[in-house]
Predict the 3D structure of the following.
Amino acid sequence: MLQVENVDLYYGASQALYGVNINAEPGQVTCILGRNGVGKTSLLRALSGHQSVQGGSMNWDGCSLNKMSASDRARLGIAYVPQGREIFSQLSVLENLKTGFAALPRSQRFIPDEIFTLFPVLKAMLKRRGGDLSGGQQQQLAIARALVTRPKLLMLDEPTEGIQPSIIKDIQQVIAQLRDRGEMAIVLVEQYLDFAYELADSYVVMDRGNVVLSGTGESMDKEQVRGYMTV
């Protein structure tokens, strides 16, 4: 279980997160919602080890993450799919997938068959350069690369951004399948409210670095949440 308590984060003198609290459990999708610039990505960067926090605690499965490096968190089973995908455009699809091996012991450095079950389009594109794929295909590759690491905590930063509707539906089905296996906690940052609403077991709404609403997916008041997501 992921437990984040009273986390503060600064960029220089500017504070981005103010006492943020969230939980995420295996077999559930926790959605983090809010406008651009309210601290959602900063929170994921803090959890993945790409940004240091200045206060509070972050624990995964009883282990403190606060002073742990990003690489050690990856070895612990924490995977991060960043906004904008950040695949390697000059590497092939297969080479992109193999970059996930860095977090694995040698005995596990192979691509599980389920990757191609979840994303069949990638199997036919293994030799193509990542930069030649469509935006939706690149997003599927970015998620697949994270899954190669066999994560126990999967964090996704706006996976629907700039993606065609048909692939959004495919990604939604993949996230639901991963959730329903009950072995993985999923934290999803999203601005597409309907997508988040369909998947959320619990949700957190952020505004100006603070958590302003939270609850179960079933109790979500979509119009109230939408008010925090519109400019």
The first strand starts at residue 2 and ends at 11. The beta strands are 2-11, 14-24, 29-33, 55-60, 63-64, 78-81, 153-157, 185-190, 202-207, 210-216.
